[in-house]
């Protein structure tokens, strides 16, 4: 999983990758991370596939409740030529409980979607309010490999240098493009930027090919930080964007800022 961005030259467009046949359009992934061990370490992470007749797009997400998923709004952008229009709900497949996404594992639960909802203030050019919800066609069954995420409730910027994790099935290498079969994770320190707190920034400020980072295919996945009071892992952000070469820090949409909006949809009991 690699996600990098430099604000001075930040490209806020999401990562896109095309391949022959049914082309694959992937948002950001993890670079210079490691395979998640043990399997099921992050049981609230889901893989989201959006597929029409000619193309497939992959994102990540987090389980809010048994029928609602948290992800990034830009995952549903129209992107010609393969996605000339925004996707419809029937294009979406969500897989929970996965480790090796290229295999059918017994732990996996696959669901369709009845609708997706973008935040009304989402701006595809600046990627502000880059947050969305997916309502599943049927409930997930919770077990050791499929659980709700804890969501950050207090709208405060994380402490500088606090170590958090991002995880996903995004690219592990950009040139050439390499996609992992298994879930990858990267430890990312929180950094402070002299900008409005429309995003949380995590990763490394100086470009380096050895830093862990998010990359194409990781978009929509969680930024998870350990809470000091009870050592619980809490989702503080949703991966929004980063540098196209995946060598520096990434920007995450702060979940707590939008928690009241999320609750307007009667999503059920949100774990905090």
TrEMBL record:
Protein name per UniProt: Acrosin
Pfam assignment, any one: Trypsin
Ranges of residues in domain Peptidase S1: 30-267
Single GO MF annotation: serine-type endopeptidase activity
Known EC number: 3.4.21.10
Lineage: Eukaryota, Metazoa, Cnidaria, Hydrozoa, Hydroidolina
SMART domains: Tryp_SPc
SUPFAM superfamilies associated with the record: Trypsin-like serine proteases
GO biological process, one term: proteolysis
Keyword DNA repair: no
Protein's organism: Clytia hemisphaerica
